[in-house]
Amino acid sequence: MTPWHSRASAAARLSALSVVLWLLSGLAMPAPALQLTAEEERRILRHGPWPPASRPDPSNRVSGTPAAIAFGRTLFFDPRLSVSGTISCATCHQPDRAWADGRTRSRGHRTVERNAPSLFNLRFNRWFGWDGAHDTLWAQNLRPLLDWREMGIGPAGAARLVRSDRQLSCGYRRAFGAAPGEDDDLILVDLAKALAALLETLVTGRTPFDDFRDALARNDAAGQARYPAAAVRGLRLFIGRGNCAVCHFGPAFTNGEFADAGVPHFIEAGRVDPGRHGGIRRLRSSPYTLLGRFNDDPQRSTAAGTRHVRLRESAFGEFRVPGLRNVALTAPYMHAGSLRTLADVVHHYSTIDEERLHAGGERILRRLDLSERERSDLVSFLETLTEQPRRPVVRKPAHVQCR
Ligand code: HEC
Ligand code: HEC
């Protein structure tokens, strides 16, 4: 027998042996929760790794700089940035409520139309706000400062405050390398940019799902076995029959786009929230976009999306697909907080009214008619997207003497 043959038959014996061992192990061990197919594995792997790589935002010259992050933190908790002196960003984005407020619709000086989203993982977004009315994090931060119902201090008020207050002008100087100048609009935008530098640091931590996903990537059966069976079943529904991952796609569980998820969008009798349609109109009429003078990137390297956005009728009633990391911490859900719990959200998708959906041809969402167990599996899966251990809560900074 040539060496080649002997090696081949040894290999055959070895593989026969491994089949036997595999069969035996199947008998000896509790049946694995589910054998995932190769296609399922491929789909699951696309939701990681976490956290993804990221770069500073070229449209914001202080993105990623420690002095701006520190200044942003002071601003975030400062109620003097509201006309009444009573409302700060933290009124509606409370650090110990996962940066949301727990209300259906937020309330500043008045109640607004929408639910306050959590502020996690924003640095991976392309559009901001439920309607994508803003193309940068800093432009989004301007909105509460300009809208009287929220804080409404406006450019003149903000500039006056920063110029006259020793601590704030010192923080400004440290962050931007120069004292606040004469241009009120520019000062307001700079405050929003310091706030953006802070918010970019809010990236969620690792979750049980990530451990499972990475164990799958390196073929680590013991690592995979630590993930609860109910979550595996829920995950299968999520990437399979539920079609959830068509929209809640990728490491942050959002494709970054807009869709109609069948959530009623009445604000009150006779008034509807136009969603993305209104967002595109606001974006196009705003001076604070990547196409305007406040973009710090002379190349406008991130402005292509803004340049090419078109107003489509189908955008009416569409909202941004929210990312789902830490979603168990951010109830109530949907753009106006209309669903109280994750079980309610899953029930919504299970019984969705297909007639109401204005799906432009491709039917992604269908009434799923899930069994009670399937619904609870899906909730179990969504709960495994919560970071563990929880990150320490960002606190209001102690008063520091800034010289
Ligand atoms: C009155 C409550 C309220 C206050 C005060 C407030 N926000 Fe918000 N915030 C909201 C609501 C509601 C939304 C959703 C807005 C929308 O989509 O129309 C939002 C959205 C955001 C978003 C977009 C998140 C995303 O997922 O796209 C950011 C960023 C943000 N706020 C930052 C801030 C900052 C910074 C401040 C302080 C300058 C602030 N907010 C003050 C209620 C508030
Ligand atoms: C066609 C795209 C699409 C599909 C498919 C889809 N979603 Fe959504 N999802 C959205 C949009 C858009 C919203 C926000 C809707 C709104 O506020 O009106 C949303 C909201 C949610 C929320 C609430 C998040 C929050 O912070 O308020 C959860 C949870 C969720 N979806 C889970 C799922 C699950 C589970 C499935 C599968 C059964 C699914 N989604 C399928 C687009 C989609």
Instruction: Give me the oligomer status.
Output: single chain
Task: Kindly identify the CATH topology of the domain at 66-199.
Answer: Cytochrome Bc1 Complex, Chain D, domain 2
> What is the count of helical runs?
16
Global geometry? globular
CATH class of the domain at 66-199: Mainly Alpha
Q: How many angstroms separate the termini?
A: 87 Å
CATH 4th-level superfamily of the domain at 66-199: Cytochrome c-like domain
Give the amount of beta strand, in percent.
under 5%
Largest sheet: 2 strands, antiparallel
Uncertain regions spanning at least 5 consecutive residues: 1-8, 23-32
Helix content: 40-55%
Give the mean pLDDT.
Answer: 91
What is the rounded Rg? 25 Å
Write out key terms for the chains shown:
single chain; 403 residues; mainly alpha; Cytochrome Bc1 Complex, Chain D, domain 2; two-stranded antiparallel sheet; two-stranded antiparallel ribbon; 16 helices; globular; binds heme C
In short:
Helices cover 40% and strands 2% of the residues.
Detail the topology: elements first, then pairings.
Blueprint: H1 3-28, H2 38-45, H3 66-76, H4 89-92, H5 137-146, H6 154-164, H7 166-176, H8 184-199, H9 208-217, H10 221-225, H11 229-239, H12 244-247, E1 258-259, E2 266-268, E3 271-272, H13 276-285, H14 304-308, E4 319-320, H15 342-350, H16 372-383
Antiparallel strand pairs: 1-4, 2-3
Helix pairs in contact: 3-7, 3-8, 5-8, 6-7, 6-8, 11-16, 15-16
